[in-house]
What does this fold into?
Amino acid sequence: MLQSTYVTGLVLVDIGGEAGRARAQAEADLRNGPSALEPETVETTRYGLTDALDDLADADDPLESLAAAGVVLNAAADLLFDHHRAWAGAHIVVSSSPRLPALGILRRYGYSYTPH
It folds into this structure.
């Protein structure tokens, strides 16, 4: 995400204050979160989640169940982040916004994960 780079990066040359303005805009972008999704996009994403839940319910093979569960988790997480207008990246959360409840959601509800 380019905004994160602008906020945390080291400016080597700032001609005419452009780097400072870019950093300020990037900070505002990160603070405000992404734009709200269009209702059609939300419905399409919800449909994808429902479809993935059906696949999970119908899975007969343990590996198929695991794969379907991964799709369900990703789709549900995407909807949660979108609902809260929170930035998310691949496997990391790039926003420390207080509007981001997903950061500790598993721990908050008593879940933990220990890799095998």
Remarks:
- The first helix runs from residue 2 to 8.
- Residues 2 and 37 are 20 Å apart (CA to CA).
- Residues 37-116 form one domain.
